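With this grant's support, we have settled on a layout for protein records. A representative record follows, to show the layout.
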Amino acid sequence: MTRKLAVTFDYRCPFAYNGHASVIAAVRGGADIEARPHAFSLDQIHVPEGEAPVWERDPSERGTGVLALLYGISVRDHFPEQFVDAHLALFAARHEHAKKLGKEDVLREAVASAGVDPDAVADHVHGGESLATLAKEHTQAVDRWGVFGVPTFIEGENAAFVRFMERDRADDVERVLDLLDWVGLNEFKRPTVPN
């Protein structure tokens, strides 16, 4: 039976990169998983209560990660065949090449490297559609599943915030899927990180 899994992402988080790369490795390795990246803004979770959410702000006041999320959403929703490669390229721009995700030329280069027309992506980004999607997905994640960070793995009504220490590990995804069914486990956290 195919397991339907949503995984939250913000391109600034190295653990989100590890998690998404591992899910992609699992799917490419033949795992019976239907995975959907679910946008979640780390900028938004730092907005003080009562202030305007990032999606209602001027682009210059949204934070450094929102524009990258909008590029990812645009590719996911309009160029799905190239999404996985663009998704990994957007993560790699930050975590492997130390580029600034708030710079549009960096994002355009990342999606172009995956064979996507950056002008077409930018049209969706600057037309407001991707921003509306970000607002909807982020709000749903908080209101429905209590999401507070990335990556959060979601299956049905079960959700778990999980940090993988390594990237491209399909076996880590299998372990998470097993644990998602174990609703009696609320938290499992190592007080120190093993070397």
